[in-house]
Amino acid sequence: MKMVETSGIRQCLILLYKGLLFRKRHYIVTFFEIVVPVLLMSVPAIIQSESNARYPYRRSDYDEPSEYRANWIDPKFYPPFDPFEKGTYGRDVQFVFAPSNGITENLMNASIELWKEKTKYIPRNIGMKGVADEDEMEAYCRYIQRSDNYLTIIGTVFNNFVSKKELPASLDYKIRYGEQYQRSFYTTSKYRVNGPSYGTDYEQTFFLGWQTAVEETFIKQKMEGEKMEYKLLMQEFPYPRHRENKGAMSIYQAIPWFVGYSLLIFIIDIIRRIIEEKANGSKELLKMM
Cα–Cα distance between 177 and 156 in angstroms, integer? Predict the structure, then answer.
């Protein structure tokens, strides 16, 4: 007997009909598969709604808080500081710069001498090496870091030093800082997480001192011997008045967990059905139709 070929649309309709029959015959399983994920995903919304109903927003709480005074922290202001006074104690430092030519080498030598003169924490050994470009700098720094884990490397890339005879009109450069400890410079965050605190990675490294030394040396060389007396001070941005949230868990941190566990129910059920179809040969029977 010759069997009639079945098109893709007919196979899709057969699968939909099979699924409908399965849902009708296993209505209890279908009920829990729909209700349980919806309840799990509704829990964060219910918690947030109850929290807002219990502690409604009042303008006075944010303007002049009274009974909630303990939850507020006053603004934080930081005193000015000398960038050369920041850094770590005895470390070996290797200065690497690119590109290597007479102008950049002269600027680096003068910057290192100024940095050694004014910095508060003098390293044990100081070295300098020039390379052709930034890619060669990365390869060289990775090589020497593998041989000496306690070495602090300060890479300086000069971008607009095209001429080998004179300094450019402006200073365009970047600093590639590396040492054994993985430092994190949070340049994208407007304010520190969980409020202000002392001891940032900018203050605990030679980054600020070297940045100031390079810029001050560049200005002096551009002045060509003219007398210039000034003292550069830095100051951290003030932190505004804020509510204390250190150690508190936000409801938005729990939403991904609820959504993930809700979808996990569907995944487990799909895997179970695939195993049953493989065991019963339902897919092979459909191909024979």
Answer: 9
